[in-house]
Design a protein that fits this description.
Length: about 270
């Protein structure tokens, strides 16, 4: 995907820029979360995020990216990622994944969350909770790991420990992030023999596992964007942008820097300030 491009290792000052972008993404998430309810359309949610981003003086990163037509990706039920906001109405019991990216002074933040609406199937609640746990376990693994392959180890371990079977999507992966939304290295959510690049100061990555309630295989709809599960089962997607600093990791897209999400894993994030 990235050919021979080199990894862009960041300085403290550059990560400060990524933090500003990350906080805009966090604010957009919070506003969208508040707006999600039965009866709203996915286009309504896009408008909410667009306003938060423009009010902050930031730029949405998805809009126009390879021709992508919206600020958010909103992926509902069997949609895994890259759902295009439009007239679709959110209903009770839906599984709604919201992905958002913003740019401040050329620096990027990228994060996603899944919400399960009231009257949900408990299995969908478990799907999202397990995906969120997989994301935090993978982020936590960056704090002590040697190579990026710890991400795939952590996601697979959370899925193995779950009491039902989930598919781990393989066609879409996490990525380096900084002066562009997508940079090397690719961040796989499954184990491979290649342990990947060393984890070292300045590495910034978006960690984004996608789990399904069925098979892991995917299909792209005729709109050329929306990725759905091949078997029609529901999916969840959680993502955060993480910086590796000299004294620890910092989740630039989490309002609290990752304190709450990492606590169950015994990891305390460290704000990286010059
Ligand atoms: N946020 C997605 C990712 O995590 C990218 C969205 S694709 C876009 O990599 F085209 F909508 F921007
Ligand atoms: Co991403």
């Amino acid at each position: 995907m990235f050919g021979r491009e080199r990894i862009e290792y960041k300085t403290a000052a550059q990560v400060a820029g990524m933090r500003r972008a990350g906080l805009v993404v966090a604010a957009a998430h919070a506003a969208v979360r508040d707006a999600v309810q039965p009866g709203v359309t996915t286009a309504d949610l896009d408008a909410v995020a667009a306003k938060v981003i423009s009010d902050a003086g930031a730029t949405p990163s998805f809009l126009g990216y390879h021709g992508y037509p919206a600020v958010l990706c909103v992926s509902v039920n069997d949609e895994i990622v890259h759902g295009i906001p439009g007239p679709r109405v959110i209903r009770r019991g839906d599984v709604v994944s919201v992905d958002c990216g913003a740019i401040v002074d050329g620096w990027h933040g990228d994060a996603a969350f899944t919400m399960v609406l009231d009257d949900a199937d408990p299995a969908d609640v478990a799907l999202s909770a397990t995906t969120e746990r997989a994301m935090w376990a993978a982020v936590a693994a960056l704090a002590s790991g040697d190579r990026l392959g710890v991400v795939g180890d952590a996601v697979e371990q959370v899925v193995e420990d779950a009491d039902v079977e989930y598919g781990i999507v393989q066609e879409y992966v996490g990525h380096g992030i900084g002066t562009a939304m997508h940079q090397p290295p690719e961040v796989l959510n499954y184990r491979t023999r290649d342990r990947g690049p060393r984890l070292r100061e300045g590495l910034c990555v978006a960690i984004e596992p996608m789990l399904t309630r069925g098979a892991r295989t995917t299909r792209v709809l005729d709109d050329d964007w929306t990725v759905v599960t091949e078997d029609g089962q529901r999916a969840a997607h959680w993502e955060h942008t993480v910086a590796i600093g000299p004294e620890g990791i910092w989740v630039t897209t989490a309002a609290d820097g990752g304190v709450a999400g990492l606590a169950p894993f015994g990891v305390t994030p460290v704000e990286w300030v010059a």
